[in-house]
Write a structure and sequence with these properties.
This protein is of the alpha/beta class. It has a single domain (about 10-284), classed as Alpha/Beta hydrolase fold, catalytic domain (Rossmann fold). The protein has 13 helices and 8 strands. Helix 3 links the parallel strand 5 and strand 6 (about 120-125). The chain is globular. The chain starts with 10 loop residues before the first strand and ends with a helix. The mean pLDDT is about 95.
């Protein structure tokens, strides 16, 4: 599984947090920024923005539990428990409060971090993901473009069907959601397919989806108190861009954001310079 580092300042590392292995890539110095990937990705999703972020910041890109080189426990795939992984790693590294940036499933974890552990979070960035429990989540779940959510929630069937078919599935999944399929090389797609094929990772990724009803129920309780921290909500103009700031204004008091032009779902890989500019302006 080839995952070359984005810049000489970065290094791979592993920690044990809450009894599970957490793999991460860290670099730079200064106020911390945490990067949380989605499906079917790993820390590698952030490779194009990490070099620019490292100027004046400590950048921490994490493999979520059930992905990449992190642990694949039998449980704990609800986003509250995954948020505890993030908080635990920050505490172990002596970092925080941190800006939490999450895309897709990682965005759900990022919201849980901000809502549950406000003292550990300085700001929040959500990228192209509806938060379970919101009206927008219910709308997206009914969208034919989100067919995979119901498929991934099925017990055992996805694991059976995807075994030894990771590369064609991942390739079709990613390219179908990209405004610019040229943003992904064959090697990039293989990195993600090889990661999914590691023992336990397909099950781990599907468990992210199987936990969504639990996430929605917990979030409806968390939503009773709006977030007070600065929040940036972005999405591809070919995906959920217009929805993102509308949704987040129901969850947070101080929201900026909107669509990223000429972009599908994969903002950090399709429009890395645009995203880097947005993050640098927002983070200061």
């Amino acid at each position: 599984m080839t995952q070359s580092l984005p810049h000489a300042t970065y290094r791979h590392a592993v920690a044990t947090v809450g009894g599970i292995r957490v793999h991460y890539v860290i670099g730079g110095a200064g106020p911390p920024v945490v990067l949380l990937h989605g499906f079917p990705q790993t820390w590698y999703a952030w490779r194009k923005v990490m070099p620019g972020l490292a100027a004046g910041r400590t950048v921490l890109a994490i493999d979520l539990r059930g992905a990449g080189l992190s642990g694949k426990p039998h449980g704990g795939y609800d986003k509250a428990t995954m948020a505890e992984d993030v908080r635990g790693l920050l505490a172990q590294l002596g970092l925080g409060p941190a800006a939490i940036v999450g895309h897709d499933i990682g965005g759900m974890v990022a919201y849980a971090c901000a809502a549950m552990f406000p003292d550990a979070c300085s700001s929040l960035v959500l990228l192209d993901v509806p938060v379970p429990g919101t009206r927008e989540w219910d709308e997206v779940a009914r969208d034919p473009r989100a067919w995979h959510v119901a498929f991934h929630m099925q017990r055992d069937t996805p694991e059976m069907l995807l075994r030894d078919r990771e590369l064609p599935y991942i390739s079709a999944f990613i390219l179908d959601r990209a405004a610019d399929p040229g943003a992904f090389s064959g090697e990039d797609l293989k990195v993600y397919a090889d990661a999914l094929a590691l023992p336990g990772n397909t099950r781990g990724a599907m468990e992210w989806y199987r936990a969504l009803p639990q996430d929605a129920e917990r979030n409806r309780a968390l939503m009773q108190r709006k977030l007070a921290l600065p929040t940036l909500a972005l999405g591809g103009d070919g995906r959920w861009g217009a929805l993102m700031p509308v949704m987040m204004r129901s969850l947070a008091d101080h929201v900026a954001g909107g669509p990223v032009r000429a972009c599908g779902h994969w903002i950090a890989e399709e429009q890395p310079q645009a995203l880097l500019g947005e993050l640098q302006r927002f983070l200061g």
